[in-house]
Amino acid sequence: MPVLRFRPWRLEALTGLGLAELRETLFRLKCETEEAEGFVEVEINADRPDMFIGEGLARAVRGLLGEEGWRAPETERSGLRIIVEEVPTRPYIVGAVIYGVNIDSEDYLAELIQFQEKLHEGLGRRRKKAAIGFHDLSKLPSKEIRYTIASVEREFLPLGERRRARVREVLEGTEKGALYGGIARLGDMHPIIEAGGEIIAVPPVLNSDITKIEVGTRDMFVDVTATSLETASVILDIIVSNLVERGGHVGKVEISGVEYPLLEEKIMRVRKEEVLGPIGIELPLEETSKILRRMRYNVEPVGEELLVRVPPFRVDVFKPIDLAEDIAIYIGYEDLGPERPVRLYALRGSHDRLSSLARRVRSLLIGLGFTEIMQLSLTSPALLEALGLKELAVEVLNPVQVEYSVLRPNIVSTMLKALSEASHAAKPVKVFEIGPVAYRAGKVVDEEHLAMAIMDEEVSYEHIQAPLYSLLKAIGAEFSVRSSASSLTINGRTAEVLVKGMPVGFLGEVKPEVLSSVGLEYPVAVAELNLSFLSSLLS
Fold it and tell me: Which of 233, 260, 287 corresponds to the end of one domain?
């Protein structure tokens, strides 16, 4: 989870609490705190990016202390307009002006940059999905801004530099360029933001020093460029909602006939039992409304229901269960109290068909000399892209970590990664795993699979064939195999497994290029079976 550093005086001034009381209040908000080197370090859930800056953190704390609701900021037309041209690698841009930000100290400036970088890492997926630019409004060369793609030979004044440089030099010769220079580049062209003929940003890499924010900056122009308009707009709303907490107001920026930021609330109409039932309590409708208002929602009772207006900065709220969690947080989990379940009659438990098969398979494979491994069903989108499985991926809406933001479509993909980390182990390495997978096949499909792998100095199709055949015979499967193809295994050294004429899995030797993509130096043979389907065929 993200860890953010705040100066104690900032949090004390924003919340009105001393550090001891603040620590207890933040714990109720699922935040861990500790003091280090003159800072308060706060570990915040990745699904609460609205709390990645002191103002947002304090807004949540003040709600627990009794402050209710959320008031949309005052807005006016800023006079700024962004002209958007075709930018294939990063098509979308949104922007806003925030008046009265008033960067009055180095501490606040550092916190603002920290806020920007944490949003880059999380919602921005390390700038691959979105990137943010902060600019001093008074330094903008023009009120007409252009977002376009330009030659990497164009010159600009990079942030923190005194001499002008070509875009190419920044992309190829700086630390930021090494990290982010390949994200949006298209040959010798790269996205830029310009005003008055001057480049003010090269997203997602670096801003220009021309519009640099610093202590003394009072008003800011914020841009967000992204591969998705929705993502860009959501990030802009979070930034604007937090910066106006300093007492400022918002300037709308016109882009393609639309004025940003949108700052749209989500409207949810819920029954009381939908938000109280999951936590097992009963409260009057008005008391439920008051709690939700203190969690910074705007709430109106409508008959026997609640009309809940979710602030634009609460991107983690989708369903009534999310409101239920906030009610539990306000009350305090420790004060909900345990409840003994009522036992009406005794039931004798037993394993279902799939569980019984999985237990038997596990026992047989251990007997065949395999070692069981257990991994998360979440994995990295970069891994699936490297293995050519990106189209099958099911993405998680609010991942705790960017590295674990998609569900694995098969077990072999994550097993290969695990083997790459065990290349030092004594050979042969023989492992298996039983676990869930999920993938897209018109709709999202979730199943229980078995995967087996053998890694050695020399491995062939026959090495994985023998134990797989032994396993299938031992569980009583009437099986056959036929030649097949797979994106992971070598053509001519791959077979599909059929049980009662129905495909249930595959086996084969892993392609050298696949091994290379995950850092494997030894050959590997694999097999994978759909246990969910297989269990139904064995009945």
Answer: 260
